[in-house]
Amino acid sequence: MERLHATRPILNYVFEFVSIYSQMTRKKKLILILVFNLALMALEIAGGIVSRSLALLSDAGHMLTDSFAVLMGLTAIYLAKNRRTPPGPSATTGPR
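The structure corresponding to this sequence follows.
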């Protein structure tokens, strides 16, 4: 029972973060994910170099590709919102 009481403040922080996260836009969520991913990747690179662990370094490389995928998602959001010309007859979506 004491252990549950000790974790209540931690759970309050988790629930507060979840409520804040649910109110964020998609773009802000992706930026947050990108920052966390790059920070953890930097920690894995540092840990891999210090401990001479190839597994940590390869996982950091995997996280780099994950970061690139999130960056592609951010680029897609940017391009979708900043469309210069409205679609017209010259912008087809398939064969006519």
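The chain has a mean pLDDT of 83.
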